[in-house]
UniProtKB/TrEMBL annotation:
<dbReference type="GO" id="GO:0030791">
    <property type="term" value="F:arsenite methyltransferase activity"/>
</dbReference>
<dbReference type="GO" id="GO:0005829">
    <property type="term" value="C:cytosol"/>
</dbReference>
<protein>
    <recommendedName>
        <fullName>Arsenite methyltransferase</fullName>
        <ecNumber>2.1.1.137</ecNumber>
    </recommendedName>
</protein>
<dbReference type="GO" id="GO:0018872">
    <property type="term" value="P:arsonoacetate metabolic process"/>
</dbReference>
<dbReference type="InterPro" id="IPR026669">
    <property type="entry name" value="Arsenite_MeTrfase-like"/>
</dbReference>
<dbReference type="Pfam" id="PF13847">
    <property type="entry name" value="Methyltransf_31"/>
</dbReference>
<comment type="similarity">
    <text>Belongs to the methyltransferase superfamily. Arsenite methyltransferase family.</text>
</comment>
<dbReference type="GO" id="GO:0009404">
    <property type="term" value="P:toxin metabolic process"/>
</dbReference>
<feature type="domain" description="Methyltransferase">
    <location>
        <begin position="137"/>
        <end position="286"/>
    </location>
</feature>
<dbReference type="InterPro" id="IPR025714">
    <property type="entry name" value="Methyltranfer_dom"/>
</dbReference>
<dbReference type="InterPro" id="IPR029063">
    <property type="entry name" value="SAM-dependent_MTases_sf"/>
</dbReference>
Amino acid sequence: MPSTSVASVPKSPPTKKRLTIYMLESVLVDDQVQMAYDYMLPLVEEIQPTQANKISWITASVSAESARDINMADLIHESVKSYYSSLESSAALQTSAACPVVSRPLSPSVQQALTHVHPEVCKRFFGCGLVAPEKLRGCSVLDLGSGSGRDCYVLSKLVGEDGRVTGIDMTEDLIQASRKYIRYHQEHFGYAKPNTEFVRGYMEKLSDAGIQDGAMDVVVSNCVICLCPDKRAVLSEAYKILKVGGELYFSDMYASEVVPESFRLDPVLWGEGMGGALYWHDFISIMKDLGFSTPRLVAASRIDVHNPELREKAGDIKYASGTYRAFKLPKHSIQTTALVTYKGTVPDCAECFELDASNSFKVNVPVEVDAEMAAILQYTRFSPDFIIQMTDKPDPSLGSAQQYCHLSPFILADRLGSCMKQCSKTGVAAGSCG
Ligand SMILES: C[S@@+](CC[C@H](N)C(=O)[O-])C[C@H]1O[C@@H](n2cnc3c(N)ncnc32)[C@H](O)[C@@H]1O
């Protein structure tokens, strides 16, 4: 903690607005953090450094006028960058900013691809599980918050030589680390030219990073969106850069109710992902509002908060991890129900294709599906894998108020009876089922 700056700042009256900026002790000397600190200093009237749970943070009192000049989103970005720059390996993770394991069993292709990823890349993997939907050959895929690139290199193998993978991350250090192994994986996979690139930028501003609108077949993300101050901006950008028929498939941490503002300003809760987690119902509403198909829940597990201090802070709010998938469908494509028959042609799914936790399609067994599912199967990359007969029956659920209980990660987690180990070393996690 740079004590000279702290000591020189006079105390403010208690009525002033309080801001909390959290930074890991180990990175406080980092240039980026120093910049954020310098940026704050002229605006604040009191800075109070505090330390707990290996996290140091600064509580600053600012006048209401100065508060308007402080862009909290920038400061959160800076501290998250510094945090991830400082981590040499996933073993050094001091908080559960990365979310818990939440995935279905890995398919044989994914398991096989994973064995090819360079150990140095795996060492700095800060997500959990793996976000790789089915049937990616030839696709353009964007990974939001790609870190050291582990998921991108798995995807590089899955999309094949004619596919394309782009990782975007705001942390320069991780971008450099991921780029180091592009040639290694290209040669390892036997590709004539690389199919993977890493760009530095913000997920909230994909076009500034050179990602074109309507360019991607699939967007994935592994435990990153809960770290972003503006989730709606991230999801809206993802929608823009997807092709029509494209898919967003990602895992993240969700809350059982709206997280109060005080949680967002609490350094430990933010660092653990608990301050930034979206209420799952709000997530569904945002996605629908942006034009996505109703998000489909693929996998979920409850997060047990074992650390007594954090459990007390969380109060009645519960947390779960969830993997959702949602599609960008053509406008007005959701019309009538359909009779669909799976052909058994999706790779690794010869007997049965599980689109989500509630919809699985057995080979050669006709199933009647609602209008939205009919549109998903008709207009996405899964279309050649189904025989689709539109029924001309209007969907009775269209136009009526939608019930989303079946999309709650809490309900699915309880149904699956799963409660997986979280990555945290600090105790938000633990392996027992609640
Ligand atoms: C928990 S790590 C996960 C990294 C990667 N997905 C993995 O599985 O190893 C979070 C990553 O998201 C990046 N990140 C967080 N917020 C971001 C933002 N707004 N824009 C771009 N990258 C961001 C961080 O730099 C960090 O690399």
